[in-house]
């Protein structure tokens, strides 16, 4: 039986995230939400994180601005501005464990994801870094993404899928996708495939050379 882990990036959104949470609850699915610091500056955003947390979902840090991958960010204080600033807002709601997903710029994996300073910060503060192995492009094709998602699931034993709880992305087709996935025998799990977690609680678990910008 193939496994599927759902994750949602770039929220919380006041209109979309509550409805995504409702869909997940109706199917008894535990997912992962990687949130942006800029979405947590309002009380509404923080309340949505608390709701997701209380429902049992994993909550992680996905940078503050989601503007440029850390491996390409020239600012000397990029780590503080993106990871630490988000953690300052997130920690009172979800103090531990600490999870981080780097901004990939369209879901690409490569050395643009992280700088060495970012890696050092993640290790020092005992973060786990969560990547992905499926990006079906819900933000580009809000109705057609399930076909690509199901194809990804059929091609590997454990899929960690990136969706988005933002307007014009996963929500419209989410319930139908989950029903189809269940009909095809997929089992939903909150666990992550180990090869998608290259840093676990501050410990580098595999070669990350291809994820870190040279000299950055």
From TrEMBL:
It comes from the Bacteria. InterPro entries: Glyco_hydro/deAcase_b/a-brl, NODB_dom, Polysacc_deacetylase_ArnD. Transmembrane segments: none annotated. GO terms for biological process: carbohydrate metabolic process. Residues 2-189 form the NodB homology domain. This is Polysaccharide deacetylase. GO terms for molecular function: hydrolase activity, acting on carbon-nitrogen (but not peptide) bonds. The lineage of its organism: Bacteria, Pseudomonadati, Myxococcota, Myxococcia, Myxococcales. CDD domains: CE4_NodB_like_6s_7s (cd10917).
């Amino acid at each position: 039986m193939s496994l599927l882990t759902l994750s949602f990036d770039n929220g919380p959104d006041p209109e979309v995230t509550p409805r995504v949470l409702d869909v997940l609850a109706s199917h008894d699915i535990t997912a992962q939400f990687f949130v942006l610091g800029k979405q947590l500056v309002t009380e509404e955003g923080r309340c949505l994180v608390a709701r997701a947390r209380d429902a049992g979902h994993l909550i992680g840090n996905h940078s503050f601005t989601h503007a440029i991958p850390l491996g390409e960010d020239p600012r000397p204080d990029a780590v503080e501005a993106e990871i630490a600033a988000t953690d300052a807002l997130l920690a009172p709601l979800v103090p531990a464990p600490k999870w981080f997903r780097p901004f990939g710029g369209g879901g690409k994996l490569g050395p643009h994801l992280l700088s060495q300073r970012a890696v050092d910060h993640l290790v020092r503060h005992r973060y786990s870094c969560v990547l992905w192995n499926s990006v079906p492009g819900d933000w580009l094709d809000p109705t057609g993404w399930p076909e690509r998602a199901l194809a990804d699931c059929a091609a590997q034993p454990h899929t960690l899928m990136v969706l988005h709880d933002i307007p014009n992305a996963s929500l419209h087709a989410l319930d139908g996708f989950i029903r189809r996935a269940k009909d095809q025998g997929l089992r939903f799990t909150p666990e992550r495939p180990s090869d998608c977690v290259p840093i676990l609680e501050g410990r580098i678990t595999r070669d990350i050379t291809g994820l870190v910008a040279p000299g950055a």
